[in-house]
Specification:
Blueprint: H1 2-6, H2 14-20, H3 25-31, H4 36-39, H5 46-57, H6 68-76, E1 88-94, E2 100-106, E3 110-116, H7 126-137, E4 140-147, E5 171-175, H8 176-190, H9 196-209, H10 211-231, H11 236-270, E6 280-287, E7 299-308, E8 318-327, E9 329-330, E10 333-334, E11 345-352, E12 371-376, H12 381-400
Parallel strand pairs: 3-4, 4-5
Antiparallel strand pairs: 1-2, 2-3, 6-7, 7-8, 8-11, 9-10, 11-12
Length: 402
């Protein structure tokens, strides 16, 4: 099918090169370890990071690591002798000036304000944080600025946010990896009584937020790439060609769907999909445009028809019929899961409402939701148009008894 659409020669040696490639087991295993922060979709969310840190800083929480993380922090700022017999942990605490403290640790003799910076710049009234914490607790108060990477182009002591505070006295600059290094160094003595799930969560948190570990994974990936290049020596041009061929293929698919879509729009402007009486084309759209910057990335192309039944007296009764394919390269293989689609397969689905309506696409019509159109992408435009019209007609007859 690729040959028929684009004249791409599949007999080249790049297939053999990919098949021969062997990953480095040690580096690959660590890089692909499941991580709840990436899976959940917030690998760099600052509030998530603060909540997890607060959980581990609190000795009373069910992680059963007791005061390990708190002592790791105190060791990092050289205050190991502080009493941690009674600790209160709070997040998102408002000062009298309505500034928000990310994490507040109240110890018997010391209050620690933690300003957690994951990606954003430093622009906070740290002196207000410290004075409010001191007034609130009646104890000495300090501010810790916790962040993954060293600040660029400035020293904390010279920053506007640090005015009124003295570094290493009531203001401390702490890198994530310094905290993690101290915590991991103490884990052995605490792990016997610890909750195993909490220890795993801590490891995942460190994997996700540690620049040192991310650099290590990048170095490991670089080793894999070097190994692949050495194994593919002599056929580099073929590898470049297949990447370009895949890009050309997806562009050709996109162009073909656009042509079919425009032909149907033109036809339905004069006559609706079902005898021109009960259903009219209300709107149409395409989503999204090709991702040219990532030719091997997931690429979703859809041509959709939004139809309404003006004779029903209910203008909210809108149906969307969507015809799509999703091309996904996954470790050299093309996905064929019905949720995505594959080469030469066109999928369709129908749902109440959709774009620009009150209804949400979750109100499904087709069962199963994703269905295979009874033509192939390599078939003629006319055959594909006929199959699309038939699918739309089936859907409307099912819903509106047309």
């Amino acid at each position: 099918m690729i040959n028929e659409m684009n004249g791409i020669d599949e007999s080249g040696t790049w297939h053999d090169a990919i098949a021969r490639f062997t990953e480095v087991p040690v580096s690959s295993a660590e890089a692909t370890r499941p991580n709840i922060f990436r899976i959940a979709g917030f690998p760099r969310r600052e509030t998530v990071s603060s909540n997890v840190l607060a959980y581990f800083f609190d000795p009373a929480e069910d992680h059963c690591l007791k005061d390990m993380m708190l002592k790791a922090l105190l060791r990092t700022i050289h205050k190991e002798d502080m009493d941690v017999s009674d600790v209160s942990v709070s997040t998102e605490v408002s000062t009298d000036k309505n500034n928000r403290i990310d994490i507040l640790l109240d110890l018997p003799e010391l209050s620690i304000v933690i300003e957690n910076k994951v990606d954003s710049g430093l622009n906070n009234d740290l002196a207000d944080y410290r004075s409010w914490a001191a007034k609130h607790s009646g104890n000495e108060a300090i501010v810790v600025v916790l962040h993954p990477f060293p600040f660029d182009n400035f020293a904390l002591a010279d920053h506007l946010s640090a005015q009124g505070l003295v570094v290493e006295q009531d203001l401390f600059d702490v890198l994530y990896d310094d905290l993690f290094r101290n915590a991991l160094g103490m884990l052995g003595e605490y792990s016997l009584d610890a909750n195993p799930r909490a220890v795993d969560l801590l490891q995942q948190f460190i994997d996700n937020y540690s620049p040192e570990r991310k650099q290590k994974k990048m170095n490991n990936t670089s080793t894999d790439i070097v190994q692949f290049v050495s194994q593919a020596n002599g056929i580099e041009q073929q590898l470049v060609n297949v990447r370009k061929s895949f890009e050309n293929y997806t562009e050709a698919v996109h162009s073909k769907l656009q042509t079919i879509h425009k032909d149907l729009i033109s036809q339905w402007t004069e006559e609706s999909p079902v005898n021109g009486k009960s259903v009219t084309l209300a709107n149409n759209w395409e989503w999204p445009t090709p991702k040219r910057h990532k030719p091997f990335d997931n690429q979703y192309y859809a041509q959709s028809f939004k139809l309404e039944n003006p004779g029903s007296g209910d203008m909210g009764r809108v149906i969307t019929c969507e015809f799509f394919l999703n091309i996904e390269f996954n470790d050299g293989y093309v996905s064929s899961d019905p949720e995505y689609g594959s080469f030469n397969t066109i999928w369709y689905k129908a749902y109440w409402g959709g774009y620009g309506t009150k209804q949400k696409p979750e109100v499904r019509i087709t069962k199963p939701y994703h269905q295979i159109l009874d033509v192939k992408l390599e078939d003629s435009n006319e055959d594909i148009k006929n199959a699309v019209e038939a699918a739309v007609e089936r859907t409307l007859k099912t819903c509106w008894n047309i």
